[in-house]
Specification:
The chain has helices spanning about 10-20, 35-50, 70-85, and strands at about 95, 105-110, 110-120, 125-130, 135-140. The protein is of the alpha+beta class. Strand 4 (about 125-130) and strand 5 form a beta hairpin. The chain is globular and about 40 Å long.
Length: about 140
């Protein structure tokens, strides 16, 4: 079962990653099993595959005609992945590209869902849902 971000007080961890501040003490690292490590590595590989190669334009389309994640979105998403992995946050239930050049991560627990979205500009937002209804949206401070 995935742990919610708010239960782990991980929002400060995400903000720390993006602002390049010292690590937050509020999140205790968990022992990383090989399955967790492999899961996070798979997410990293996918984000790297979406990122534009050197010399490639930032605005590129996938086979369905949607914008692939921009270089800024991919860089911010990779930083977030690395920090959440280090903090012992469970692998997201879902991760994927948005239709407009960003990256989404989603965790669920019971009837609660938390979605962390990095947009094409590399800006992040955490949205919380209860019974599929939006409860809150929090911008994650970028450094």
């Amino acid at each position: 079962m995935n742990q919610s971000l708010s239960n782990l007080n991980a929002l400060p961890v995400i903000e720390t990653v993006l602002s390049a501040a010292p690590p937050t003490a509020g999140v205790r690292p968990a022992i990383d099993s090989s399955g967790e490590a492999e899961g996070w590595q798979a997410i990293e590989r996918q984000i790297i595959a979406w990122a534009p190669a050197s010399g490639e334009p930032d605005a590129r389309l996938d086979e369905d005609g949607y914008l692939l994640p921009s270089g800024k979105a991919a860089a911010a998403a990779l930083k977030i992945v690395a920090r959440l992995r280090e903090a012992g946050v469970a692998i997201p239930l879902r991760s994927g590209q948005t239709a407009n050049g960003g990256v989404n991560f989603e965790w669920r627990r019971g009837t609660s869902t938390e979605r962390l979205t990095v947009n094409a500009r590399g800006e992040a937002e955490l949205a919380k849902f209860k019974n599929s209804k939006l409860v809150s949206r929090t911008s994650v401070t970028l450094g």
